[in-house]
């Protein structure tokens, strides 16, 4: 079997599976931001369906309120902390915390801490061109901590032009307000079931077991207007996980997997790749994908351009309440799953 090795940058052509190494991607530095944006999946690759962007940075000022006419933003904190303002809500988010910001909702973020990381899907794909226009290609290890240039010469003119060219409407008259505590309303297992802004605390949200694996849903097609679904997929080498091992094909849904714990082996149309923490795999629609957990415990986030793998677990799995993966693997009617797939 052919082996696929993680690379530093994504390809330009559509319809090709690829893997990216830790903190890799098409990297851009936004002047004065103390951060780097990494394009992991682009509109070119996904035929305009989705983009996946990760950001790493150090403590800096809020980026400024704005909204998008068409783009739906999400923020999933992976490391450190970030502040997110969305409409009239504001939270400090830690690892595993999630925020969804639909089109038309005024929002901003602020990186907090020495080294914070977050990742998010953008739909439709193509809006990431904003980062290419505003940012500067960056080849360093992390990101610049100082920038002695004049922002009135380097950044502000570009920001004004970007606001005219892209789906980004600045709201400079709005001021930051105090971060709010996480309220009980957002600490239960319910998703809003509609397209509106919301925050979800790590470990919450509905969970579903299929075989020995568990998906915890962060956003379904109900929260995205049918545009995407996001969840975490957890499993163990102690279980067979036949549904994932045999392979699934989603004819119209693109997937991206971002591993956060353990080691997972993927086979995509006969090509294998093993991924560990902070590595990413893109699987185009129509490609057969097999998944095998190599370590005792492994976890990956799943980003789908539709219901995809996340909602397969919702429809065919059983509600699950334990905070850890099951000790016993549930029986699965494999033939039925394959017919559904």
TrEMBL record:
Pfam families: Cupin_2. Signal peptide: none annotated. InterPro entries: Cupin_2 (IPR013096), QDO-like (IPR053146), RmlC-like_jellyroll (IPR014710), RmlC_Cupin_sf (IPR011051). It comes from the Eukaryota. Residues 63-114 form the Cupin type-2 domain. PANTHER family: PUTATIVE (AFU_ORTHOLOGUE AFUA_8G07350)-RELATED. This is RmlC-like cupin domain-containing protein. The lineage of its organism: Eukaryota, Fungi, Dikarya, Ascomycota, Pezizomycotina.
């Amino acid at each position: 079997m052919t082996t696929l090795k993680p690379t530093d940058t994504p390809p330009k052509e559509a319809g090709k599976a690829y893997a990216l190494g830790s903190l890799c991607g098409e990297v851009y530095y936004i002047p004065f931001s103390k951060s780097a944006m990494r394009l992991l999946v682009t509109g070119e690759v996904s035929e305009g369906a989705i983009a996946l962007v990760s950001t790493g940075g150090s403590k800096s000022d809020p980026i400024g309120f704005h909204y998008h006419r068409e783009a739906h933003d999400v923020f999933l904190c992976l490391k450190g902390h970030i502040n997110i303002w969305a409409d009239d809500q504001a939270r400090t988010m830690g690892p595993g915390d999630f925020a969804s910001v639909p089109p038309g909702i005024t929002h901003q973020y602020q990186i907090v801490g020495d080294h914070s990381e977050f990742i998010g899907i953008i739909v439709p794909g193509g809006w990431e061109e904003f980062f290419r226009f505003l940012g500067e290609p960056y080849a360093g290890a992390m990101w610049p901590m100082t920038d002695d240039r004049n922002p009135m010469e380097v950044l502000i003119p570009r920001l004004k032009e970007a606001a005219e060219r892209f789906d980004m409407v600045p709201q400079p008259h709005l001021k930051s307000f105090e971060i709010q505590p996480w309220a009980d309303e957002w600490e239960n297992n319910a998703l809003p079931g509609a397209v509106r802004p919301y925050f979800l605390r790590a470990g919450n949200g509905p969970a579903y077991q299929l075989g020995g694996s568990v998906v915890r849903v962060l956003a379904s097609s109900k929260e995205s207007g049918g545009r995407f679904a996001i969840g975490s997929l957890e499993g163990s080498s102690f279980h067979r996980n036949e549904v994932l091992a045999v392979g699934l094909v989603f004819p119209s849904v693109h997937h991206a997997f971002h591993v956060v714990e353990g080691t997972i082996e993927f086979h995509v149309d006969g090509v294998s790749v093993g991924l560990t923490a902070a590595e990413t795999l893109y699987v185009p629609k129509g490609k057969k994908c097999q998944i095998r957990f190599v370590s005792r415990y492994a976890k990956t986030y799943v980003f789908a351009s539709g219901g995809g793998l996340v909602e397969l677990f919702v429809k065919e799995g059983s509600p699950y309440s334990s905070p850890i993966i099951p000790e016993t693997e549930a029986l699965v009617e494999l033939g039925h799953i394959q017919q559904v797939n």
